[in-house]
Amino acid sequence: MTRPAIPTEIKVLVAAAFVIAVGFGLVSPVLPAYARSFDVGVAAASVVVSAFAFFRLVFAPAGGALVVKLGERPVYVAGLVIVALSSLATAFAQSYVQLLVVRGLGGVGSTMFTVSAMSLVVRLAPPSIRGRCTSAYATAFLLGGMLGPVLGGLLAEFGLRVPFVVYAVALFIAALVVAIWLKDARLRPGQEQVEQPPMRVREAWHSSAFRAALLSGFANGWCNFGVRVAVLPQLAAAVHDDTWVAGAALAAASVGTAATLQFSGRWADSVGRRPLVLAGLLVTAIGLGLIGLSNGLVLLLALSVFSGIGGGLLNPAQQATLADIVGSDRSGSKVLATFQMAQDTGAILGPILIGLVADNFGFAWAFGVTGVVALAAMLPWLTAEETMPEMEMAPRR
């Protein structure tokens, strides 16, 4: 069967995602140093980093409600503008308290455009290529996230405030592009069709796949967005006492994910969502579960790549599952916001709790526990329904 091409509107969102990710990568490596320039310690600088994620988590339900009331496009553009203003204000902060407040408020805008972007992909992606569309979107974010820190380091040579200004400009451009190019995109039914009410979380909860996705989203946040980013660099420094190794380990994981995303979306559209989610969780569990036993640089980098493959298998299938559950004829922003909250919760709790395990029992135990979290998330998927429209082999529970 011939599958349709990725719609132009999705390509616009993919391009915007790349710009957003590059901009976020610009500020990520300089934010801790910028915070410490206000004469605060490591803990206070870390709070500035965490404030963004905390506000994302807290505002997620309101973000979903805004999308239901105002629509995906206005909330997406408004979210980008809020983060742009936050970044601009961050560049001109005069005290640590100002920095903490304006950076935290950026998390509000981030939730707005994240939830609305997920909803836009759901509404605009043809059902038969949802895996490809979500894979393209994830690839853009990943590649932008890889390029951004490199450019951010170069821009920091002109001053720690410069990357934040450039980030703001990039976000304003992305907001303008989306506002113009998606202006005529059809998200609502025509006059001959009846507008479907937004999907409630209670309704989605009846799907075993949605319940499973909440747990795998939590595990994905814990493993790939939390522990990998915050704890893996510290393991790398312990294995090989050289500053470049931490970045090399993260880059190796990103390479594994980026390479896998080139085909995992198509697999999710052909063999089904559930097999890809299970495979992704299993590979993540093995890769991160064993990486704490690394006693040399080669093994560390090899397992980093392997763990990255897990994320590349998991994400498109997981996002496509959510799109299948919501469908393209109604808004599912509250459902998507709930999933985003589960993922953000894992990303926040994972580094904290695994950091405590590492401090008291060592990296081997810490990453072993991380592997168990990924394995545990597989359990509900073993009996979850297959949501791919052409399959739907298992009965709904």
Describe this structure in words.
Helices cover 79% and strands 0% of the residues. The chain has 15 helices and no strands. It has helices at 8-27, 31-36, 42-70, 72-91, 96-124, 130-155, 162-181, 201-205, 208-230, 232-239, 243-270, 273-291, 297-326, 333-361, 363-383. The chain is globular and about 55 Å long. The protein starts with 7 loop residues before the first helix and ends in a 14-residue tail after the last helix.
Summary, kept brief:
With 397 residues, this protein is mostly helical. Helices cover 79% and strands 0% of the residues.
Sum up the structure in keywords.
mainly alpha, 397 residues, disordered C terminus, globular, 15 helices
Helix coverage percent:
over 70%
The string of secondary-structure elements, in order, is HHHHHHHHHHHHHHH
Number of DSSP E strands: 0
Q: Tell me, rounded to a whole number, the average pLDDT.
A: 84
Q: What's the gyration radius in Å?
A: 20 Å
The proportion of strand residues reads: under 5%
Please describe the biggest sheet, giving its number of strands, its sense, and whether it closes into a barrel: none
Instruction: Give the N-to-C terminal Cα separation.
Output: 30 Å
Q: Return the structural class.
A: mainly alpha
Low-confidence regions: 188-194, 392-397
Shape: globular
Number of helices: 15
Assembly state of the chains shown: single chain
Spell out the blueprint of helices and strands:
Elements: H1 8-27, H2 31-36, H3 42-70, H4 72-91, H5 96-124, H6 130-155, H7 162-181, H8 201-205, H9 208-230, H10 232-239, H11 243-270, H12 273-291, H13 297-326, H14 333-361, H15 363-383
Helix pairs in contact: 1-6, 1-7, 3-4, 3-5, 3-14, 4-5, 4-7, 5-13, 5-14, 6-11, 6-13, 9-12, 9-13, 9-14, 9-15, 10-11, 11-12, 11-13, 12-13, 12-15, 14-15
